[in-house]
Amino acid sequence: MLQISNRGQQMPPSPIRKLVPYAEAAKKKGIKVFHLNIGQPDIETPPSILDAVRKADIPVLEYSHSAGNESYRRKLVHYYKSVGIDVAYDQILITTGGSEAIMFGFFACLNPGDEVVIPEPYYANYNGFAVQAGVTVVPITSRIENGFALPPIADFEKVITPRTKAIVICSPNNPTGYLYSRQEMEDLKTICIKYNLFLFSDEAYREFSYTGEAVSAMHLDGMDENVIVMDTISKRYSACGARLGAFVTKNKAVYDTAMKFAQARLSPPGLAQIMGEAAVDLPASYFDKPKAEYLERRNLLVSRLNAMPGVFCPNPGGAFYAMAKLPIDDSDAFCQWLLESFSYEGKTVMLAPATGFYGTPGLGKDEVRLAYVLNVQDLGEAMDCLEKALEQYPGRTEIVQTEKVMSTVQ
Amino acid sequence: MLQISNRGQQMPPSPIRKLVPYAEAAKKKGIKVFHLNIGQPDIETPPSILDAVRKADIPVLEYSHSAGNESYRRKLVHYYKSVGIDVAYDQILITTGGSEAIMFGFFACLNPGDEVVIPEPYYANYNGFAVQAGVTVVPITSRIENGFALPPIADFEKVITPRTKAIVICSPNNPTGYLYSRQEMEDLKTICIKYNLFLFSDEAYREFSYTGEAVSAMHLDGMDENVIVMDTISKRYSACGARLGAFVTKNKAVYDTAMKFAQARLSPPGLAQIMGEAAVDLPASYFDKPKAEYLERRNLLVSRLNAMPGVFCPNPGGAFYAMAKLPIDDSDAFCQWLLESFSYEGKTVMLAPATGFYGTPGLGKDEVRLAYVLNVQDLGEAMDCLEKALEQYPGRTEIVQTEKVMSTVQ
């Protein structure tokens, strides 16, 4: 009998996609499902960047340089400068989505058995990349009560061992929407310098910061050897399907090593690089409209959630996600029930159970992630559904769970 | 001091690209360099498949299904049927180039420390994927004297251990151009069944078979559990830069496992999938022209090479590569010398030293790989250069090395 590999067995299935069959069944019954479960924005992809592909003269669609077209990398230098990041074109390696940038970082910097510390809840696919690289994720818990702020330095120090090689952060954060402050970024620097750790910084949501500018790991002085930025155009230009990202570091040994992995897979996608290059030419004002749109949605979502009895949703500083604490017994059961057994005026809502975003078993059972990737009208109707659902859900808990809830009850 | 990983250190740099700085220096001196060193065809990408992208209405370039768009996979069922392969759409997983298909196979089926047997010379990047997966490549030598035919079953049996989990083949072959016969494919089946091995079959060059139809691993009866086909549109439609491939297997456990790796990286490139889908609609006659073109080039290349004193080039049955044995001391030194110290009428030729394609140290020192990816005119001039170069090369050997050479000498 042929066996699949151990890592293949350990590889987690997508926690976000496991409810898909229930959503499909609901749709077959004629129920409209509002998808707040995935980070697929409905924002239009800028037509000009698709036009750049349409107009390109391509007699032969050749391999690009393994690090990506030099013309694109040189343009990205200007983009990064515009967000206060000073890098050279040969410190940028174009990747197949942010996913590949994360993998290059794990493979180039970490040995099997090494540990990476990640504040939880975190982007669930970090688990998959860790299994692929044979690396152990060590979660430290950030808490909904304080909006998922960075855990104190002491919490990091409790889990750091000689096997710890890196910290992974994402700010603005998926799934919490939390935006690390300058002080929190400085705290991360303190830990990385003290313990000689890489800082892998996933900055996919940089432009969508509502409570101040996002502080990049590249803004930290004296961290040139430690920092690797994992970037992507997926969310920035609503171009998730392009599969175009970047691995950015001033650490030459790390760059050169990642380059060997890049050479093995030959090159990043060619048509997407034309899009990426055109995107750098978009005016700075391009972001005003999607950012205003997301902000309006966030405000609606957060106010609606907090108005529901027993619900607490901290106001996220960026990205397009919010985490909410609900008066429920089990978020997996609740999200499945929403699709399987509930509808309101022929509609229901699909959410992501927060359990998939925690590394510590048992956490997130009364939390869900909501991606505000639908227009305000749909988002409002989705909130109507959720409100009704919480009234009807058989597994509703009546325990008062947070200070906010207490004050609402008073 | 922050350290890169062990596998990062072990990761081989591209053997094909290491001569690039010498080529660049030659060009700076005004020398025209004929590139026979890389498998980047000059054949036009079919305009209709690029037009499909131009005409596509894409308001939002969304993530596709992690296995690729269902519409594309359903179309590929017909493509595979046309080459005698009977698979269902849910046995096809769309990948980012053939590279990712190979990686999914290694990660899904092999544990660190496992061994894969590969007839050498072989595609050099298999080494990189093996390092990435922590897998050991065990080469068995196929020989230029018999045109790189499959080594006898006994040679496989000599190296098979309890750690051996798979055989990797590529037919038509890169770098040798050799096309495995039906009997050779049956021999591989015999070994895989006897020793319970996966058969990873890289079929990138399927359409470019000149001495008969390529036998797919999927044509072998009773091998449904063993076979994984790694495929790509790169060479088939001269669309290397699209980065679109496929992982095809009837082994459900392997497919489901690869799917988990696919979910972690979200989706394959979106615009490329539009190209891939349009490519299935090309008439079967599409291949006539590029195939005839490659055949003409092959005939020119092989006859020119074999007419050079001391040179032996077996006639390849497929793909667009040929391996030649040259009267030289060291193929790495020779290929560098061609770029650094030689020119003929202001021109020179860039070749790939065969050493990079052998797993056994020391082999390939008097062999080079030539990719016939230039038109007949350029190819002829490149052969003129090589002929002159062999006359002048200081490291020329005078030893008669093969039967063919002997018969030429007589």
Count of distinct strands of chain A: 12
Gyration radius of chain A (Cα, Å) is 21 Å
Top-tier CATH class of the largest domain in chain A: Alpha Beta
Gross CATH architecture of the largest domain in chain A: 3-Layer(aba) Sandwich
Strand content of chain A: 5-15%
Largest sheet of chain A: 7 strands, mixed
Number of domains of chain A: 2
- What is the H/E order of chain A? HHEHHEHEHEHEHEEEHHHEHEEEHH
Which chains share the greatest interface?
A-B, 76 and 76 residues
Give me the side-by-side strand order of the main sheet of chain A.
Answer: 2-8-7-6-5-3-4
Low-confidence stretches of chain A: 403-410
Number of helices of chain A: 14
CATH topology of the largest domain in chain A: Aspartate Aminotransferase, domain 2
Task: Describe what you observe in this structure.
Chain A has 410 residues and is an alpha/beta fold. Chain A has 2 domains: 6-44 and 287-409, Aspartate Aminotransferase, domain 1 (Alpha-Beta Complex); 47-281, Type I PLP-dependent aspartate aminotransferase-like (Major domain) (Aspartate Aminotransferase, domain 2, 3-Layer(aba) Sandwich). In chain A, 38% of the residues lie in helices and 14% in strands. The first copy, chain A, has 14 helices and 12 strands. The first copy, chain A, has helices at 6-10, 20-28, 47-55, 70-82, 97-109, 125-133, 153-159, 182-195, 252-264, 270-280, 288-307, 331-340, 376-392, 403-409; strands spanning 32-35, 92-95, 115-120, 136-141, 164-170, 198-202, 227-232, 245-249, 321-325, 347-350, 352-353, 367-371. A 7-stranded mixed sheet of chain A has the order 2-8-7-6-5-3-4, sandwiched between helices. In chain A, helix 5 crosses helix 9 (252-264). Chain A is globular, with a radius of gyration of 21 Å. The N and C termini of chain A lie far apart (64 Å). The model of chain A is unreliable at 403-410 (pLDDT under 50). Chains A and B meet through helix 1, helix 3, helix 5, helix 6 and helix 9 of A and helix 1, helix 3, helix 5, helix 6 and helix 9 of B.
